[in-house]
Design a protein that fits this description.
This protein has helices at 4-15, 27-36, 46-62, 64-71, 76-94; strands at residues 16-17, 20-23, 41-44. It is mainly α. Strands 1-2-3 form a three-stranded mixed β-sheet. Strand 1 (16-17) and strand 2 (20-23) form a beta hairpin. The longest helix has 19 residues, at 76-94. It is elongated.
């Protein structure tokens, strides 16, 4: 059976590039990585970032009626159009 030092060395060789470790965002993984590689910068890998982004956008889409009510807009497009008009007026005023 491998010793702790052998395991840490194997993890460093396999997973650590340039002081960074790509890992799952679960809390246990972060804690274990911090113990094994205390100087490493921990980053989320692309797959987890894309899935988290997709989950966030799905949650927003499902909540749009509540969001529109909260911001006082009857439709997202009308609020967006209003914001675009305000931005255009600010740009013209600054010119």
């Amino acid at each position: 059976m491998a010793t702790r030092d052998e395991l840490v060395s194997a993890v460093r060789e396999r997973y650590m590039e340039g002081g960074r470790v790509s890992r799952d965002r679960g809390g246990g993984y972060g804690e274990a990585t911090a113990k094994a590689l205390p100087n490493a910068i921990q980053v989320a890998d692309r797959w987890h970032l894309e899935n988290a982004s997709a989950a966030f956008l799905d949650a927003v889409r499902k909540s749009m009626r509540i969001i529109r009510t909260a911001i006082g807009a009857t439709t997202y497009q009308s609020r967006l159009a209003h914001l675009r008009r305000e931005a255009a007026i600010r740009r013209l005023s600054a010119a």
